[in-house]
Each structure stands twice: as C-alpha cells, then as structure tokens.
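Figure S4 source data
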Amino acid sequence: MRIGLLVLSIGDFGKKGFYNLQEVGLARELDPLYDEVLICRLVGRHDSEVREPLDGCRNTTLRLLPAHAVGSNGIPPLKELDASIDALVCFSDTQLFFPSVYRWCQKHRIRLIPYIGVSRSHSSHPVKQKVMDWLFSRNLRLYKKLTCLAKTPGVRDELAADGVSDVITAPVGLDMTRLKPDADSVSPDSLKSRYGFASGEKVILFIGRMTAEKQPLRMIEIFREVLRRDSSFRLLMVGDGELSDDVDKCIGQHGLSESVTRLPRIPNSEIWELYRLSDCFVNLNRQEIYGMVLLEAMYYGCKVIAWHAPGPDFIIRDNVTGYLVGSNEQAYEHILDSVSLSQRAKAAVISDFSWKKTAGLIRDLTE
C-alpha cells in the first residue's frame, strides 16, 4: 500500500532546516508501515523543485513542489501529483484549495484523510477572521463526509459540535531522530558563554515570530517585573516579524538593552542549545494551536510556562510537566520560582508525543 502526505500551506512555518517538520516526523513512523510514503510540500512558485529520499527511511520520498498561492493558501498543481497512491493525508485546516484536493481524490478513488489543527480563525483582524471562518465553513461540508484527524481534543470537540461525526484525536509528535539525545551531558554554563551570558545569569527563552499573536511586547512587560525582583535574569528572544522594530524600541525605551538578547532566527539543528542553557521557556500565544516548541523545550528539560490555549492545555499537565498561566502575574511568579519539572516533562514527551501513535491510527484507517 502506498500513502501520500500533502501540505497545502505556503509560508515560513516548517521551512526546511528551521523547524520540526510535522509531515517529515509523521512520515518516518509511517515508513515501516507502508510500501511507499510520498511527502509533498508546496513551496513558492519561484523556489526550486526538490525531490529526494528521506534519510533514514526505507522507501519515503520528500518532494518540494513549486506552486502559485493566494496568501498562504497554496494552489496544488494536481496534475503533477501521483494519482496511483491508495491514501492521502492532507494537512488541510482552513486551506482555500482543499475542495480541489477532495475532488481529485474522488476522481482517482484515493482515500482522503484530513489532518486538522485549527477549525476557527484566531486572527484579531475582523476581515481576516471573516475570510478564515468562511473558508472553514466551506471545508466543513467536506469534513462531514470523511474520517478526520484532529491534532488536539479541543479541535476534535469543535468539529464534532459542527456536525463532523467521524473525528479522531491524533496528536502531533516530535521527530525523535532530529533531537539530540545526549544534550543532558552538555554543560549549560558552556552554552551560556557561547551566547554571551555569564554562568550565574538565569535565562528566559522566548521563541516566536514578532507578531501580535505571539505577544513579544507582553513578554518584555513580564520580564521588566522579573528583572525588578531578581537582577540576575536575562531574556533571550528568537524570531523576526512585523513587530521587530516595536520590540527593539520597547527594549531601548525601558533601558533593557544590556539584559535582552535578540536573535532573528536559529537553525533547528542548533536550537537544542538554547533550551539547554535556559532556565525557562515562555509561550504567551493565547491562540496557540499546538506548540511544537513546547514539546522541544520539555524534551530538553527546560521549564515551560505557557498561556492557556488549545495546544498548551492539551500538552501540559499543569504543575506536573509545566505551568499554565492566564495573567502576567502568574507568569512571572512561575519564572521566579526554582521548581524543576524537567525529568517528568521529558518522560511525558517520550511516552505521549512521538509520531508513532498517530501513524498507527492512520494505518488502522487505511487497512
């Protein structure tokens, strides 16, 4: 049996070398279960096409296929896809051209399995919100005809409430082959020195695009209070985006230039160093769909503090593997405490958040 994985969205999310690619991690666990696995990720129309075997796999191919797009909605060049596969897992969400994929699968008698991480718009922009909700309602008519996979129980419940009768929770996992298993043997102080921190300084790590939804300005506000209480703390912010100038201005206005380090981005192969050197990782996105960075931080033993949202509420067992917060005050209180949850957090990631479970669910559906 042959199976395909199709990613319709086009953007920086999942860019090769800079993020934990969901479709690649899933494909690694599907590889021993199928005769062939074909991954297709749409990229910008000016990018080069890539077709290469996936390292460490028996018979899996990764294809980066140039395509036109409407915003982040890729227009799949369906004539270039392999119509002889038996099943297709489509990372669909609210993608504009999912109905085209549905019709293509119907035409070629391919079992279509949507993999859904969001069912509603989380944009604060009213026009974008209306457009996204319209796209979802359009896709919803098709979801009702299919067996759907939801990335979190929250999305599963939303789909069920909207009339999707056949929906299964299939959690996102980490690609364990891309993690550094011996990170515990590396001294945090040696890594701190490499990134310009003193051994006695405590580092707060913030990773995310500099956009309103990620709340970088709130992070600075929280850090100011932490620093007022304990001057040994430092803030390391990784990411770039439309609020970058505002973030830099805010840092300067509050005299934090000596206490905040900004990195526009870092390759995924090196990001373990940041988790290892940091005392805690903070995620303030109140609409976090999942949170791969939470899993990565937990795996590397970095204390996780996350704002209540669908992804963190699913991933974190509060006060056991991390902390869920709903206010600035709760955030800085947990940043300041010295409780370590590292061993329990790492164990939870290994047992509950690999791709093996979801690969098994897909295999059961296609047998």
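Figure S5 source data
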Amino acid sequence: MSDSKVLLTGATGFLGRHIIASLTERNAKVVALVRRRSEWNRQDWTAPYPTVDLIEGGITGSEGWTGDRRLLGTTGIIHTAAIVRHSRRSPEDIYETNVEGTLRMVRLAAKLGARLVFVSTAGTVACFRSPAQRADEDADYVDRVVRDWPYYDSKVKAERAARALATQLGVQLTIIRPPILLGPGDHRFRSTSYVLKFLRKKFPFVIEGGMSFIDVRDAAPAIVAALDHPAARPVYHLDGENVTVPEFFELCRQVSGVAAPARVMPYGTAHALAKTVESAAHLLGKHSPLPDPVVIEMGSHYWGIKSRYSGPELGYQPRPGRQTLADTVAWLRANHPALQGKGV
C-alpha cells in the first residue's frame, strides 16, 4: 500500500482515527473527507498526522467536492461515515446518509477507478433470539427482524443497493461487518457509551439479551488489509466477544470495580416503561431518562457473529474482550470530564 492514495469518509470519528493510524503506518497517502476543517484542527489526536489531505464536504448534499483534483490517482475508498441513532423518530436523515450516501461512494469509486471498502455492521445478518446462534459471511439478511429499527434497516438496504450498483458499474466492493467497537480513543464518547453509562451508574436496570464487541485497534488494520488484499472477498466479518448483557456488565465490574446493575427487568415491563416515559417526555419537550424503546427491543436479541475468512486473509486477530474493556475503562477515566476526580 506504500504511496497509494486512499479516500476516507468518517475520518473524524472513532473508527476513522484508528484507520488513519493504520493507513499512515502503511505509508499510504490519506485524503480525509471532513465536514469542516476546523473540526479536524481542534482535535488533539489529529496533530501527529500533518500529511493528511483534508477535503471539506459530506456524503449527502452537494457533490461538488468529488471533482477536487486532489482525488486524482485515488486507488481506494474506505467508507465509514454513517448516522448511528437507535430511534424511530424522524429517521429520514438516517436513510439519506446511510443508503444514499453509500451509493454516492459507489459512483465515486466508479468515477475514480478505485476499490471500495464499505464498513457496515454485523447487525444486518446477526440478530437472533438465541444466544447460541452465529452468523458467518454467507448468512442471509435479517431484514424481517430489523425492519422496524431504522439504523439496521438502513444498513441492510445500503448493502443490497451498493452491491447491485457496484456490480452494474464494475466497482470492486468489499463489505466489512463489525459489531460494537470499543477500546481507547472514542473522543466523541459514542461507541463506548454503554461503558461510560455503566461507569457513571446510569443503568437503572438491564434486560436479558446479548452483545457482541471487538477492539477498534484490531478492526482498523483488518479494514485496511481488505482494501489492500489482491483478491478480497465480497464480505468479511470481524468477530470477537459474544456475551449476554449481564455477562458484559459483569466484565465491566471486574475491570473497573464499579458494581454491576443489580436489577434484571423482564423485557415486557422494560419496554412498556420505556414507551410510557418517552411519550411523557416528548409531550413536555424533554428527553427521556430511559433508553429509547428501540434500544430495549434490540437489547432483547443476541448478536452473535463468526468469520471463516478474516483471520487467514486479513490477519485479523481479536484480543481478549476483557483486555479491550479494561483499556476502554482506563481511557474513559482519563479523558471524560464526568469521570475525572470522582473515584469512579
């Protein structure tokens, strides 16, 4: 990959910063798509990357930036930009960004003659009622399960539409499906929000269900390797820790010393309570203190994935989940204002 030019969307995000580090280690020339240059400049973590070329623009709206001469010679695109919001309220921007934005990246790849790696989510195929089930790269979409959850539904639609358009335009497309990303460096405190809320003791209850997570430091080099692989497959899964929700918070307790939520509430009770409180908060123009009903619905499912190819072909080797959680907790305690000096 030395001296190749790669366009990265979602460059200022949690995964984006780690992909930039991985690309830089491989001596690739990085062109980062950013909404605003000022957003990049005010982040401390961007200082070690003075050679990253910044193009202002977005994957929706005006496409004027796609004619920027700095894109000439681009050999690969890594597309990570997305809206991750788990709610049924006003989902239009979710579909516009996650579906239409992805199709624009396919068209741009065709225009540039570049390969495209699209980072989707394991939730397009891995969502079950049983903790024993696992989805590999050949699994069918779980569209009937996730159709009422705009984020996951948009990702299913994006994958299908992107594959069809890439085939039509002759674009080499690889889809990467990671589960939840944890680890250090989540400067927006979004992907690690479950751990953050746990440390701040913001979980009044939990429900029976599952979670799957990996370390962002393991995901980023595997994604870059998919772009560089001479015969990359259409799909790769990045599998890691598949645990139940109570097991996840027990691991959090072990690495942090903070007590795990003691109350496991039945799904029906939790869902009804979340809907009632959300409706009341909406009428008052406030935010509900409880999770969105969509989050409760999702949390009652299991998200097990596995891979037959990412290890031998991408060099993907996930570290133990306990280590990832310990490093996540340490980073949050050192960097989140609400956790500093409070002994949590």
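The chain is about 40% helix and 15% strand. The first strand starts at residue 5 and ends at 9.
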